[in-house]
# Entry
Amino acid sequence: MSRLMEAKQKTRNGNHAIVIGSGMAGLLSARILTEHFERITVVERDRLPQQPEIRQGVPQANHVHALLTQGYRILEEWFPGIEEKLIAAGVPCVSWAMESCFFMHGVVQSVVPQT
# Structure
């Protein structure tokens, strides 16, 4: 059997998974797949920076992002200790309900009604 055929056969047998994209969804998928495959390859179009920076292939990179409670719980389950690592890296921690607002109909609105 040729090496290509052997490689295809091994992939079908669950030895190797390929994930397209190294965003949050891709990296979380890759982590979960480590429970089911011997080898994971993440394919990314962009060069990954060493420091946080806006990447050309990520159109939503300029938007504000927040990790909500259930997302945090899922990440903590699959990456134990991630909260401490994020804090050490300088990621701000906010109370979404108490410290955020949004812009609607030309007016800045508080998430929590002001009394």
Notes: DSSP finds five helices and four strands in the chain. The mean pLDDT is 84. The two ends are 74 Å apart (CA to CA). Residues 3-12 form the longest helix (10 residues).
